[in-house]
Amino acid sequence: MAQIAKMEVQTQIKSSADKAYDIFKRKMYLMPEICPEVVKDVKIGKGDWETVGSVRLWKYVTGNPEYVSETVEAIDDRNKSITFNALDGDVSKCYKTFKCTLNITPNGQGSLVKWTLVYEKLNQNVPDPDKYMELATCFSKSVEAYLLKN
Asked: Angle at Cα 74 formed by Cα 100 and Cα 129, nearest 5°?
């Protein structure tokens, strides 16, 4: 029987926590522009870009083209934290549960972006979701580059 597991990745960026958090909370529609090599499309399925309960539909590449629908499960503006929960798509072919929390904290002249992934594999033959942690790091670095340019 599969067990719930947890992975974390942290990335130091040169952008302010407020500006980075604003992209992840309110401006995810910019991700195909910010990270075009990975994110091919993102749109709203229900709600809006910044409200708990909203559903986003993603098309992205992690070696192969993939699709996922996710809901915004929790937002904590004070701690600059957002929790996303995968509802459907390629992720659900391998994982029974797949929940990701983003937390951005000020750190010196920049910020520390931490992604925490809590997941449950459908079976023991499913690989760990390393490629999704690489995707999260790509998002962090791409947002940093975008903010430093704009």
From this structure: 5
CA dihedral over 73, 103, 148, 65, signed as positive or negative: negative
Distance (Å, whole) CA 37 – CA 6: 27
Q: How far apart are CA 9 and CA 43, in angstroms?
A: 26
Per-residue model confidence as pLDDT tens digits over 39-66: 999 999 999 999 999 999 999 998 899 9
* Alpha-helical segments (H) within the chain: 17-26, 31-34, 130-149
Determine if the pTM surpasses 0.90. Answer: yes
Q: Cα–Cα distance between 86 and 49 in angstroms, integer?
A: 16
Mean of the per-residue pLDDT values of the chain: 95
Do 104 and 24 meet the contact criterion of CB atoms below 8 Å apart? yes
